[in-house]
Specification:
The chain is mostly beta strands and about 280 residues long. The protein has two domains: about 80 residues, no CATH class; about 160 residues, AttH-like fold, CATH 2.40.370. Helix content is about 0%, strand content about 50%. It is built from no helices and 16 strands. The strands form three sheets. It has a nine-stranded antiparallel sheet with strand order 10-9-8-7-16-15-13-12-11, with no helix packed on it. A hairpin with a 6-residue loop joins strand 11 and strand 12.
Length: about 280
């Protein structure tokens, strides 16, 4: 099967269109219903089109790479036995489901920043990467040995969680470069609930069979989605970024902070599956 979703936040509303159908035999046909993705130039130019006027959404967007492609490290987390065919018999898991994930691609005029981390319930990172990438010109390579990236070995985050929720009111990234700390302050401009792209959606989650071709839409007021419902805790926030370097210079830019926190995370003050920030725990 093949599915797709496209969502927009505007004027206090989040609107999405979803499409699902049978996967075509030709894998280059990256279209389902009214949504298509065209690889105009690999790793450099993509075009996304949506023709769903009946559902209130149309779009024709072209995305051009500002940096060379950056490969995140492989992220593998295993628990228990690996099933082949029927799952092997196994004892119940000793721990409740838990995930803490942050992802922040941030654009500035002359450079870009990439930050990603997965952490366990105690705040220990089991996958993490940070990199500074220069902005490239139209003829610069987008992959290979000439595609530069400065890896940052020491990078940390501090998320300022909104009281009673699992979304940020801002965040700070701290990078150690040349032995000196540099901070990137992230301030939210708008919030997109990832259910609008199918993530954790109660109906339109990825990979569910609906029919040979089905197209649907939904809309919600943004404040209606400010809850601890499992479909609303996975968010991406558009962020205004301010980077204070160790040399005293300052950059301003625009980026995203994706957040997914399920289960406990002690550094954030989360103790249950979906408790909100700053809520006292019962004795």
């Amino acid at each position: 099967m093949i599915d797709a979703a496209f969502g927009v936040v505007h004027d206090g509303w989040q609107r999405s269109v979803f499409a699902s159908g049978r996967l075509p035999l030709d894998p280059t046909r990256t279209q389902v219903g009214p949504i298509s993705i065209e690889i105009t130039e690999p790793l450099r130019v993509n075009r996304v089109r949506v023709d769903a006027a009946g559902h209130g959404i149309t779009a024709d967007l072209t995305f051009r790479a500002r940096t060379a492609a950056f490969s995140e490290p492989r992220q593998t987390l295993l628990q228990g036995t690996r099933p082949v065919g029927q799952p092997a018999p196994a004892a119940p898991a000793r721990t409740a489901p838990q995930i803490f994930f942050l992802w922040a691609p941030v654009n500035f005029a002359d450079t870009c920043l990439h930050y990603m981390t997965f952490e366990d319930a105690d705040g220990r990172a089991w996958a993490k990467t940070a990199a500074v990438l220069p902005v490239i010109g139209p003829d610069a390579p987008v992959y290979g040995p000439d595609a530069a990236a400065e890896l940052i070995a020491d990078a940390t985050h501090q998320v300022h969680w909104a009281r009673g929720l699992r979304r940020s009111e801002g965040a700070t990234l701290t990078l150690s470069r040349n032995g000196r700390p540099e901070t990137v302050q992230l301030d939210p401009l708008l919030t997109f609930r990832m259910r609008g792209a199918g993530y954790l959606h109660p109906v339109w989650a990825h990979g569910r069979w609906h029919d040979e071709l089905t197209v649907a839409a939904e809309e919600h007021r943004v404040d209606e989605l400010d809850t601890l419902d499992p479909s609303c805790v996975h968010v991406q926030q558009v962020m205004r970024a301010s980077w204070a370097s160790s040399t005293g210079s300052n950059r301003t830019g625009l980026g995203v902070l994706e957040q997914l926190v399920i289960g406990p995370h002690t550094p954030s003050g989360f103790h249950e599956m979906f408790d909100g920030a700053g809520i006292p725990q019962p004795f």
